[in-house]
Amino acid sequence: MKSQFAKSLMLGAAALVTTTSGSAWAADLGPYQPYAPPPEPEVQYQAPSIWEGAYVGINGGYGWSNSNFTEPEGGFGGGQIGYNWQRGRFVFGLEGDIQGADIGGTAFDQFGDVARSDVDWFSTVRGRLGFASGPLLVYGTGGLAIAGIDNRIHFSDGSFVRDDSTQTGYAVGGGLEWAFAPNWSAKAEYLYMGFGDDTLPSGDRINNDVQTVRVGLNYKFH
């Protein structure tokens, strides 16, 4: 009888321990939650740079010389090609252009002498450095300038002197460019081109520096 009572007591204690342990284990696990896979990593797409890439374009404008002798002025037109790199808001690049020009002027003196100056063409190869604010680019530019300049004086006695040559100098300036479509931009630009003075055989000095303002249209390749 005692043996039967002891056996029942041991079975009851074992059941109590098992129930208590199971409850504690279930409490540790918390309420049941279905399995949820981790979220997919978010794919971020970076918009292409507005300004980076190669471009070609056309331009036209008006130029005038610093010469106080013949005071040349007139129009010009041509094209440009270049490449931009963009790092954040900073844009830097290279541009080359060539223009046909009709910049000229004539002067007369009291002795019947006639002086004439013409800028027939010019070209520049320049670096550009700018700051972009969305589709607007503000930039400075500078580099090499080359021009075909013809200076001559016809004297009243029928003789004349002439210097018709290709001259090299510098170009500095700046401008604004507006990207109005994914591949298209319009620009307005000022350039000062310094070529120095010509001293003709007659002793007359003519300043060949030229200032220009122009507008242009560029197409950028992707």
Verbal overview:
The protein is mainly beta. The chain has one domain (53-220): Porin (Beta Barrel). The chain is built from one helix and ten strands. The chain has an eight-stranded antiparallel beta barrel. A two-stranded antiparallel ribbon has the order 8-9.
CATH topology: Porin
Number of helices: 1
Strand-residue fraction? over 45%
Helix vs. strand class: mainly beta
Overall pLDDT metric? 86
Instruction: Domain count, please report it.
Output: 1
Between the first and last Cα atoms, what is the distance in angstroms?
99 Å
Order of strands across the main sheet: 1-2-3-4-5-6-7-10
Short description:
The chain has one helix spanning 2-29; strands spanning 53-65, 73-87, 90-108, 114-133, 136-154, 160-181, 184-194, 197-199, 205-207, 210-220. It is mainly beta and 222 residues long.
What does the secondary structure layout of this molecule look like, with pairings?
Blueprint: H1 2-29, E1 53-65, E2 73-87, E3 90-108, E4 114-133, E5 136-154, E6 160-181, E7 184-194, E8 197-199, E9 205-207, E10 210-220
